[in-house]
């Protein structure tokens, strides 16, 4: 279309110059004439091509799968500390003093006696450390689904000759 308008504008400006019109008026009138001639010419070609051709087409379609992945929660893991109480027995040697009295002629004597007493205290000690982390594992999973596909099926009635594009006869 652009070619027709451009050629029309050139011819119109030349005619305007030769006939003492304004060149701008000739340019505009020529462009309009070029657009109209393109419309008429293209309509005539469309009518010719539809009359001359008897080719019809059949569009064949097929289904395609769109595969999407979605993350869903499959479970939950809770990790916490649990205090377990157990009874432990320790053997601790202790010392004590014992009074030994031997017969003699003295008066009463007092001697203080001492012994060790067991006292204990508790304090936490690091036993071990538990590491907690997540990791992704990639697996391949096969998905099966049926898809539909259209194919062309030719039914011939009577004595009609049908030829494929590669010139083989169909029945």
TrEMBL record:
InterPro entries per UniProt: DUF2382, Stress_Response_Assoc
DNA repair keyword on record: no
Pfam families reported for this sequence: DUF2382 (PF09557)
Domain of life from the UniProt record: Bacteria
Residues annotated as domain DUF2382: 58-102, 105-154
Originating organism: Halalkalibacter alkalisediminis
Keywords: Membrane, Transmembrane, Transmembrane helix
Protein name: YsnF/AvaK domain-containing protein
TM region positions: 21-41
PANTHER family: STRESS RESPONSE PROTEIN YSNF
